[in-house]
Amino acid sequence: MGKDHQKPTDAELEILQVLWQTGPCSVRQVHDTLAGGRDVGYTTTLKLMQIMAEKGLVRRNTDTRSHIYEAVVAEQDIQQHLLRRFVDTAFRGSAMNLVMQALGQHNAGSEELDEIKALIQRIEQGGNADSDNPPT
Fold first, then answer.
1. Is the pLDDT of residue 119 over 90?
2. CATH number, position 55
3. Do residues 27 and 46 share a domain?
4. What does the pLDDT average to over 89-113?
5. Domain shared by 83 and 95, yes or no
6. b/e map of 92-110 (b: 16 or more CB within 10 Å)?
7. Average pLDDT over the chain, rounded to whole?
8. According to the 3-state scheme, what is the secondary structure of 2-52?
9. Of 35 and 50, which is predicted with more confidence?
10. Which of 24, 38, 52, 58 is least surrounded, with the fewest CB atoms within 10 Å of its CB?
């Protein structure tokens, strides 16, 4: 995540997830997706998206009557930023402690373990961990 963008709050992250999944949307479309069973006010969604535009997280297209918002930040960039912060704060910067905790809490199947082994092998060979696995 570039220095131009601020870290999204949890509520802003929910909005970004809608935009990443569906592409550019109006406030109404984002609100309807988020409201799905919760009591979320339209004006709250609108205000959050306006703040996000000011923060550089989204861009607003005003060419049409209903303004269309799109994510400016990439999902992978936000994920990497949040993960680095999480590892630093919750695991004192140790990726090994994170992985050990995750594997200890989850029964990984043989297919998952094979993928983990392949990832470790790519990293050991100097490759990028995501080189063969584009983000989904």
1. no
2. 1.10.10.10
3. yes
4. 84
5. yes
6. eeeeeeeeeeeeeeeeeee
7. 85
8. CCCCCCCCHHHHHHHHHHHHHCCEEHHHHHHHHHCCCCCCHHHHHHHHHHH
9. 50
10. 38
- Determine whether 91 is exposed, middle or buried from the number of CB atoms within 10 Å of its CB (0-12, 13-18, 19+): middle
How far, in Å, CA of 96 to CA of 32, rounded?
Answer: 40
Evaluate whether residue 48 is within a structural domain.
yes
pLDDT of 51: 95
Structure confidence at residue 136 (pLDDT) = 40
Q: How far apart are CA 3 and CA 127, in angstroms?
A: 26
Enter the tokens of residue 49: 């998206």
Is pLDDT above 80 for 87? yes
Is pTM beyond 0.90? Reply is: no
Examine the domain organization and report whether 64 and 43 are in the same domain: yes
Helix (H, G, I), strand (E, B) or coil at 58: strand
Placement of tokens 């569906």 in the chain: 22
* Side-chain half-sphere CA neighbours of 76 within 13 A: 6
